[in-house]
Structures are given as structure tokens and as C-alpha cells.
Amino acid sequence: MTRRAVVAGVGHYLPERVVPNSEFEARLDTSDEWIRSRSGIERRHFAAEGETTSTMATAAARAAIADAGLAVDDIDAIVLATSTADLTFPSAATMVQAALGMERGFAFDVQAVCAGFAYALANADALIVSGQANRVLVIGAETFSRILDWTDRSTCVLFGDGAGALVLEGREGTGTSADRGILATDLHSDGRYRDLLYVDGGVSTGTSGAVRMQGNQVFRHAVEKLAQTAEDALAKAGLTPADVDWIVPHQANIRIIQGTAKKMGLPMEKVVVTVQDHGNTSAASIPLALSVGKARGQIREGDLIVTEAIGGGLAWGAVVIRW
Ligand code: ACO
Q: For 181-322, CATH number?
């Protein structure tokens, strides 16, 4: 028997305010046409005053726990991927723990920018497989609208806010790729690329700073590294791209998503795409896409899913899940 971390529930939260590309046309030298054709983004959600990463994460967590048919007391741990925690500390995860009324277990944040959810899934999987926790809430939540330079047209039009969550539960599998649950993970980072994508603030500056990105340089790394990590993760599970039902990619740019699918030899009919509606929500984008993909009827129990993401660091990775 092999212990597997199986998806028991999924949920998401998006702030009420939807901002179409046209809102940027009024205050920047940009156009709906440029944003759509270069990124695939048509609109994004922005948090209201008073809404934070932890409040959105809590809403997504509640939805995932309800979807799993569980109660808060059933959860042993919370792993929250974010680069926009409410405060430098405590972690947003412990704020979610308190907001849920969870009085036991443990909670911590994972920071790997847009690759954060892949890292969080890998951590949660390890906790479950090693027996340290049986039911883990894995959340991706971001408030990138608070770290954008509204005068920089090359970044501020690309990002959005939101949160998504999964409940992972330990179950016994047979050890084959027919098992439900996380089948393989593949993580990488290379800190030499720090200047391609970073926030120019933090404890060293006393400000929270704003996103700085050499978009075309990141783009060049993205397709190659994403296809490679997805194929490596599949190979670790004894699978190939031909076995995949759905790619659920990090939603940064439709051209990166299309390029990665093409490099893997998979048609766009096998890709869950939400970038047009959410923009780039960093660590929240994959759980948002999983939740929306399930709600649309695309993702069904037993489907083989590969998620892949790249972001600041650079950090990147992929996770293979049988839903
Ligand atoms: N409106 C109009 N023109 C613009 C805008 C805008 N909003 N933004 C940039 N431009 C201009 C640039 O100034 C440039 O003009 P120039 O040629 O006169 O200098 C021109 O458009 C082309 O700019 P590029 O950056 O080369 O455009 P590109 O086709 O590469 O698209 C984009 C830019 C969308 C940012 C793309 O490079 C991309 O998606 N990169 C990857 C982003 C990503 O995946 N990031 C990782 C995750 S994010 C994270 O980890 C936080």
C-alpha cells in the first residue's frame, strides 16, 4: 500500500470588483487590444479596501472544506502559498487558522511567487505521505493589486487578486499511476535570475515595494522550463504527455500557456484557461483554475492533471495529480 494525498475538496474566492482592460486605457498609454493580444487578459478582480490575502484565503478555504463535506475540526494543517501576506509576520496561514476557528494543528506560508502553489502542494504531499498530517488545506492567495506600480504599463495591467484552495486527504493507494492523488512533484529554482522579476521593497527598504519585471526575458525562460518540468514530473510518475487529460497551468500569459502545450504535443482542448478572466493571480492562479475547471465540468474524478508554474526567483515546478 502507498499513502497518497488525494483531493477531497476544492473552492475559490474572487473579489467582487471586476476591472476590464478599458479601465487602464483611461490612465495609461495602453489599449485593450495590446493587453489582449500580448497576454490574453480581458479583465481581472481587485480586492476591496479591507480585503486582504488572509480574508480571501479564508473564504476559499471555507468553500473547499464544504466541498469536501468536512468540518474545520477535521483539518490538521494549512499550507498557504503567497507573496502578499497581510503582514511581514505572522503568516497569513495562521491568520486563516484563527479566522476559521481552528484551534489545533499547524499553519505556515510558502513563498515561491507564481510557483508557490506547486511548492505548497509538494509540501502538503510530503506532510501527508510522512504521516505528519492527514488532512491539509492547501491555499494559494494573493493581493497583487497592493504591490503594483500604477504608472508602469508593462506590469500593472497583468495582475489580479483572488484565492483558491484544495483539501488534500491521506488515503491508501496501490502505488501505481492509476491511484487518485498526487503522483509526482518536480521543483526547481535558480536565484541567479533574481533581477528578471522581483519586488523592490521589503524589510531592507521599509516599504512594501512594487513588482519589477523584464517580461520578455521571463517569457523566454517560461515555455522551455515549464514544458520540461511538466514532462519530468510525468516521467517520475511513469507517465507521458499522452496520458494527460488536463494541463492546469499558471495563468500568466495565454501565449506562454499555448507555447507550453504545443511543446508538450497537447492541444488547447486539454488546457484549463482562466487568464482572460483573472489575469495573473500569482500563487492563486492554479487553485483558482482547478476550482473553476471543476465548476465548468472540465475536471472530473479520475482525470490526470499536470499543473506547472514559473515565477520570481526564478522558481518553477510541476505537480501530477489524479483528480
Ligand atoms: N500597453 C502598450 N504597450 C506596452 C505595454 C502596455 N500595457 N506594456 C509594454 N508595452 C510596450 C513595451 O514598452 C514595448 O515597447 P517598445 O518596443 O517600444 O520598447 C513593447 O510593448 C513590447 O514589450 P515586450 O515586453 O517585449 O512585450 P511582450 O510581447 O514580451 O509582452 C508581457 C509583455 C505580456 C509582459 C510578456 O513578456 C509576458 O507575459 N512575460 C512573462 C510574464 C510572466 O510569466 N511572469 C512570471 C509570472 S509573474 C510572477 O512571478 C510575479
A: 3.40.47.10
CA–CA separation, 17 and 20 (whole Å): 10
Residues 281 and 159: their CA atoms lie apart, in Å, by: 6
Active site residue: 114, 123, 156, 278, which one? 114
State in Å: Cα 159 to ligand 1 middle. Answer: 12
168-214 confidence digits (pLDDT tens): 999 999 999 999 999 999 999 999 999 999 999 999 999 999 999 99
SS3 sequence of 241-255: HHHCCEEEECCCCHH
Distance CA 52, CA 48 (A): 8
User: Is 250 known to be catalytic?
Assistant: yes
Say how far apart CA 171 and CA 135 lie, in whole Å: 10
| pLDDT tens digits along 51-108 | 999 999 999 999 999 999 999 999 999 999 999 999 999 999 999 999 999 999 999 9
pTM: 0.97
2-173: CATH topology: Peroxisomal Thiolase; Chain A, domain 1 (3.40.47)
Q: Is 47 exposed, middle or buried (0-12, 13-18, 19+ CB in 10 A)?
A: buried
267 contact partners, CB below 8 Å, separation of at least 6: 261
> What is the C-alpha radius of gyration for the chain, rounded to an integer number of angstroms?
18
The domain segmentation of the chain, as residue ranges, is 2-173, 181-322
Question: Given this chain, do its domains 2-173 and 181-322 carry the same CATH topology?
Answer: yes
* Residue 5 · residue 137 · CB < 8 Å: no
| Residue 283 near residue 141, CB atoms below 8 Å | yes
Q: What is the β-pairing status of strands 77-81 and 135-143?
A: parallel
Residue nearest to atom 48 of ligand 1 (CA): 311
